[in-house]
């Protein structure tokens, strides 16, 4: 199931082009985080993020339950393809104030924010200021 979900996200990411939402974070000053993909309904919203920092670029997948305010880490890797082989955590955990998951949930659980736009509704940019791919349902 996890492989199908992430494979579908990665395939869709390879096929459509829009800009990602840049996250405002204060806890990792040497990196930029972008939301690359958002899919699913509010009770099972899957989000793929990109981190660009001194050590390079990486991607992570998380599944949010926006109603219960919980998150499940689904894996990370150096590429979107690496996410297909990632191992998901077994349990959902609370979303803590000040965490990256909190910043992501504030962007993706707000129904007025669409994938590919910033919180103010303007087009987002990737961490490299380049278009990246995104999906939405």
From TrEMBL:
UniProt keyword annotations, A-Z: Signal
Full protein name: Uncharacterized protein
Domain of life of the organism encoding this protein: Bacteria
Region: Disordered, residue numbers: 115-137
Signal peptide start-end: 1-20
Record carries keyword Signal: yes
């Amino acid at each position: 199931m996890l492989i199908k979900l992430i494979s579908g996200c990665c395939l869709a990411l390879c096929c459509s082009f829009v800009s990602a939402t840049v996250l405002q974070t204060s806890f990792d000053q040497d990196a930029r985080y972008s939301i690359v993909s958002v899919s699913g309904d509010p009770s099972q919203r899957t989000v793929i993020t990109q981190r660009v920092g001194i050590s390079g670029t990486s991607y992570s997948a998380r599944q949010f339950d926006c109603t219960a305010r919980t998150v499940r880490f689904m894996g990370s890797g150096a590429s979107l393809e690496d996410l297909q082989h990632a191992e998901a955590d077994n349990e959902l955990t609370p979303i803590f104030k000040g965490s990256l998951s909190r910043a992501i949930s504030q962007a993706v659980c707000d129904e007025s924010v669409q994938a590919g736009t910033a919180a103010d509704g303007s087009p987002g940019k990737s961490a490299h200021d380049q278009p990246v791919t995104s999906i939405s349902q």
